[in-house]
Amino acid sequence: MKQYIKKIEYRKSNETTRFGYTLLISLFIGGILGLISAYFIADNHNLAITLYIENFAENIANGNISMPKLLTSSWAVLRWPLIICIIGVSSFCMLLIPVVFIMRGFFLAFCISAFIHLLGCAGFFLSLILFGVESLLCIPILFMIAMQIASRKEEKRRKMSFSMLQTLVMRNLIYISILFGCIIWETICVPVLLGCFGKFIL
Fold this sequence. Notes:
With 202 residues, this protein is mostly helical.
């Protein structure tokens, strides 16, 4: 009986590990698609996205920087974790979550590539300010939330002990704290950095 239980636990562990690899591959595939799309779209200077980036860069060069609203920054940071959490309660979450990671990788790579393709070296530094810190912190949290959901789906028949619940709550509080820090970064720090270094970059 003990060997049978160990086999089941080993199988669950392998399934969770495979799901983690699936998420990483999905993020990578989305990034590749974003790079390819940005390469073809950025060549067309009549598209709205290219006009938006050029106007954005011009405003930064002229010092026309305004702080975004707190609600806008909150939505920009929290939308992906919220989507993952909403999908996590569905029966098809193990299929839909990798799709979300493809989309996340696509939009991130597309934005960075479009900035670099249109603005060159200046676009690279602007991308670091606009997307660097937020992506560096939020994507690992997104991954951890997805893995947490996958783990709970596989262990849904087991009762959660108090220590497990305590660990889960503490872990989520850490995630929320980091996401709140990202909101502050997007609302206050990014406009200040663009105002200070934008004229030197562009």
